[in-house]
Amino acid sequence: GGALAPVFRALAGRPVRREAAAQDAGVTFAERMAALGEEERAEALLHTVRAHVAGVLGHTDPGSVETDRAFKDLGFDSLAAIELRNSLSAELDQRLSATLVFDHPSPEALAAHLGTLTGGARTGARRAGRRAGTARADEPLAIVGLACRYPGGVRTPEDLWRLVADGTDAISPFPARRGWDVDRIVDPTRQRPDTSYVGEGGFLHDAGEFDAAFFGISPKEALVMDPQQRLLLEASWEALESAGIDPHTLKGSRTGVFAGVQYHDYFGSFGSGSIISGRIAYTLGLEGPSLSVDTACSSSLVALHLAAQSLRQGESGLALVGGVAVMATPETFIEFSRQGALAPDARTRAFADAAGGTVWGEGVGVLVVERLADARRNGHEVLAVIR
User: What is the CATH number of the domain that holds 257?
Assistant: First the structure.
């Protein structure tokens, strides 16, 4: 009859308070929810989730649970996640997925999901244009949104247009805020080993800046996130907004993420390219394919090709397609200096007689792509067509 150790609580489940059940004996939770209006049902579900989260965490006041914070930031671990699943399963009298908390990573998102299980309707955005249609191998696709950040202060597609039209040189010295020992690294004489004879490139000097709170990410987690994840996440949000799509409405939709990424030099496993597409899908709650692609210089193009296939085959109803490059270390410059492949003046001059090598640059670009027929039906502006 003694209390279980904390490590075993999640396996055994926990007693669940059933005030509402006591008041409405014989009426199921789903029936009670179905009898409510849409707003009342959403409020009741959120209250239910908060109460169970508070119980798992040992809080006496459900109102102290911040509904828009990620469960991991509220103090959940895998055992707490199982305990919450067990608790809610008992309340709803319904078997819930073992990955419930990971698939719906905040109390707010979880309450919305439970709404779909208890008679709540999915949002119109999920119904419109994000469902599988009749697909053809040659079906035309539409680019309906885009966002970018590139060297030279480019933060929008309009900035990029002006930079190209004005012939602006966006090459700049090595960044000063990445801990690179420039005096040791750069040797224009090529006399010292393990150095770069070039000290310039196309850099995003503000690549470390990130509004973590906007995405519900803790400062501690943001610090270990590869800057490429941060940039692609921000650009994906901006691209969706440019398409007139509220990113919040895509939760649970079959929106795919296809990300081209070449650099994997951020510290530890946090620099793995495979994490980048998953980060976007997880943060936005997307349930379509999620692929990170590394085919060197063609990574983004191959990502677009895979996205086109996914849309045409009906796997995805919408696709975020992008590429991102941020160099956490100068190793690429050093390696290509060994090969003598860098342009000595850090200017590529592609296809010109004066071309003398390559130079490295950074940036992020994201496209929002859907089937052309869907774009027209959804009233999205068509910026370009892929055939």
Answer: 3.40.47.10
